[in-house]
């Protein structure tokens, strides 16, 4: 709500002066969005869409603003800013940028509330759709050995956002509940702190929004929007690997939010140390708070998840079938859910009971599909490192210790032999080496296999392990 007509008139005069002294793009970007709010006691208060916007004005245009105000309104006039992003967060700052107070009452939003995380419309909204999936909550997240620690820290963060673990970095293989858990955190925070601006976004969507904003000249809006978030949840951060500009932009958003006491929650399919193609300064920040792993569920947890899903779906499935599925499907929870869905579909389609025989046929088919899943370089790194009992992170360091060099060479050799990945990509993923190093490693290992029986047996043992994946 604009509180004072005089403010509009005075600000319009200032704008006319400013317009003559900056280029049209800067005027449109940095001055048109400003809203005059009130003029009282020789102080003009203007509304700006975000803290970032204020910082930018202070850094780049404070001289021009001061001149315009003194010239058009009079010497000694104070300029006060009000951040319009959140009704609970109205700070005012004088033109020297020193005095802060809670002087302004809450105001109505300047723009209409948006319902999607569209950064181009979003800077000054209050009702932000957090894009959380309400079906993913703590109540239906089943606890087990493999996720107990992550679940506990997730609950702690939800109770006290930005007070405990910031950022919270959750990692683990596909389908083990990362997305579920981070949605649960967001949902709990919204229940406990409804005024907080929580946003869930996939790394992929973030990247698309960023690219779009650059293409359509709305980059500042994009940045401003993300800098207004109180709890930013980004899923599958590994997608930023190799995309430098997106990483760079995210780096600045991360810093701004972290410095301003906002919570960041990130997930990835691998630990920070295994994130190739990611800038070091980001990797360091990912480790600032807490890094927690979600492992593949053990058999007990698989049974409990199955029982829970079956109950929720209103099905009755014999305990022997539950045990059979839990013991034979051990990749991810998503896979377990897929089996239950197939059982249900088959029993409806063929009008038959869900029994062990049906379960066995469905599981066999699903497990066969898993067998033909191609090996990845990451699978090979994992197997080779565990065979030699070396921490996977060491092969990405620069160390030239003989035993580490050998592990690296074996991993490169097997990656070349068992995947379609190019030598240069393999090099990047294993110790950030070039393709010539990979080819050299392959030759060394191959030569040794030909003359050293014990070494040959060792390699065959690792290869057998790879086939069991
Ligand atoms: N502990 C759990 N209790 C109940 N459901 C679970 C649990 N873990 C995972 N699930 C369910 O398994 C499915 C897959 O989980 P989710 O999408 O969270 O995995 P993810 O780790 O994010 O996988 P991806 O990395 O592939 O995105 C979801 O339907 C989720 O609700």
Automatic annotation (TrEMBL):
Coiled coil: none
Keywords from the named record: ATP-binding, Cytoplasm, DNA replication, DNA-binding, Lipid-binding, Nucleotide-binding
Domain I, interacts with DnaA modulators as annotated region, ranges: 1-101
Classification via Pfam families: Bac_DnaA, Bac_DnaA_C, DnaA_N
UniProt domain Chromosomal replication initiator DnaA C-terminal: residue ranges: 376-445
Location of the region described as Domain IV, binds dsDNA in the Swiss-Prot/TrEMBL record: 348-469
SMART domains in the record: AAA, Bac_DnaA_C
Positions that bind ATP: 175, 177-179
Parts of the chain that traverse the membrane: none
Cellular localization per UniProt: Cytoplasm
InterPro entries linked to this entry: AAA+_ATPase (IPR003593), Chromosome_initiator_DnaA (IPR001957), Chromosome_initiator_DnaA-like (IPR020591), Chromosome_initiator_DnaA_CS (IPR018312), DnaA_C (IPR013159), DnaA_dom (IPR013317), DnaA_N_dom (IPR024633), DnaA_N_sf (IPR038454)
Gene3D superfamilies in alphabetical order: 1.10.1750.10, 1.10.8.60, 3.30.300.180, P-loop containing nucleotide triphosphate hydrolases
Domain III, AAA+ region: region residues: 131-347
Domain of life, source organism: Bacteria
AAA+ ATPase domain mapped to chain residues: 164-294
Annotated SUPFAM superfamilies: P-loop containing nucleoside triphosphate hydrolases, TrpR-like
Cross-referenced PANTHER family: CHROMOSOMAL REPLICATION INITIATOR PROTEIN DNAA (PTHR30050:SF2)
Job description of the protein: Plays an essential role in the initiation and regulation of chromosomal replication. ATP-DnaA binds to the origin of replication (oriC) to initiate formation of the DNA replication initiation complex once per cell cycle. Binds the DnaA box (a 9 base pair repeat at the origin) and separates the double-stranded (ds)DNA. Forms a right-handed helical filament on oriC DNA; dsDNA binds to the exterior of the filament while single-stranded (ss)DNA is stabiized in the filament's interior.
Annotated domain remarks: Domain I is involved in oligomerization and binding regulators, domain II is flexibile and of varying length in different bacteria, domain III forms the AAA+ region, while domain IV binds dsDNA.
Similarity field: Belongs to the DnaA family.
Quaternary structure, from the entry: Oligomerizes as a right-handed, spiral filament on DNA at oriC.
Record HAMAP family: DnaA_bact
UniProt name for this protein: Chromosomal replication initiator protein DnaA
Species assigned in the record: Phocaeicola acetigenes
């Amino acid at each position: 709500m604009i509180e004072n007509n005089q403010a509009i008139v005075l600000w319009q005069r200032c704008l006319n002066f400013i317009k003559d002294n900056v280029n049209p793009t800067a005027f449109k970007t940095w001055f048109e969005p400003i809203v005059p709010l009130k003029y009282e006691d020789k102080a003009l208060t203007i509304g700006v869409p975000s803290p970032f916007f204020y910082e930018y004005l202070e850094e780049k245009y404070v001289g021009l603003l001061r001149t315009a105000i003194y010239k058009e309104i009079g010497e000694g006039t104070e300029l006060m800013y009000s951040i319009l992003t959140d009704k609970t967060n109205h700070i005012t700052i004088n033109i020297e940028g020193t005095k802060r107070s809670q002087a302004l009452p809450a105001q109505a939003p300047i723009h209409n509330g948006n319902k999607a995380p569209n950064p181009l419309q979003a800077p000054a909204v209050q009702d932000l759709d957090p894009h959380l999936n309400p079906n993913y909550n703590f109540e239906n997240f089943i606890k087990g050995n493999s996720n107990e620690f992550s679940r506990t820290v997730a609950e702690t963060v939800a109770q006290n956002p930005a007070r405990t673990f910031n950022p919270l970095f959750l990692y683990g293989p596909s389908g083990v509940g990362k997305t579920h858990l981070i949605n649960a955190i967001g949902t709990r925070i919204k229940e406990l702190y409804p005024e907080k601006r929580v946003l869930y976004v996939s790394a992929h969507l973030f990247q698309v929004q960023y690219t779009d904003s650059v293409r359509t000249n709305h980059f500042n809006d994009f940045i401003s929007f993300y800098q207004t978030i109180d709890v930013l949840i980004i899923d599958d951060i590994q997608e930023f690997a190799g995309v430098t500009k997106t990483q760079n932009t995210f780096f600045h958003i991360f810093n701004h939010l972290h410095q301003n006491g906002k919570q960041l929650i990130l997930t990835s399919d691998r630990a920070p140390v295994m994130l190739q193609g990611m800038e070091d300064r980001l990797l360091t920040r990912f480790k600032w708070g807490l890094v927690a792993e979600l492992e593949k569920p053990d058999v007990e947890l698989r049974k409990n998840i199955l029982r829970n899903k079956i109950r929720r779906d209103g099905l009755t499935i014999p305990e022997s079938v539950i045990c059979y599925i839990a013991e034979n499907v051990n990749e991810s929870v998503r896979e377990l859910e897929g089996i239950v869905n197939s059982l249900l579909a088959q029993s409806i389609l063929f009008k038959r009971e869900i029994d062990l025989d049906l379960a066995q046929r469905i599981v066999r088919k699903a497990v066969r599909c898993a067998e033909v899943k191609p090996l990845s370089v990451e699978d090979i790194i994992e197997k080779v490192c565990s065979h030699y009992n070396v921490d996977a992170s060491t092969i990405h360091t620069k160390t030239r210790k003989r035993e580490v060099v050998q592990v690296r060479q074996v991993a490169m050799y097997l990656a070349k032999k068992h995947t379609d990945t190019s030598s240069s990509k393999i090099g990047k993923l294993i110790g950030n080496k070039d393709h010539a190093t990979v080819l050299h490693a392959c030759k060394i290992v191959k030569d040794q296999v030909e003359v050293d029986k014990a070494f040959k047996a060792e390699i065959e043992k690792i290869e057998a392990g790879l086939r069991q994946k």
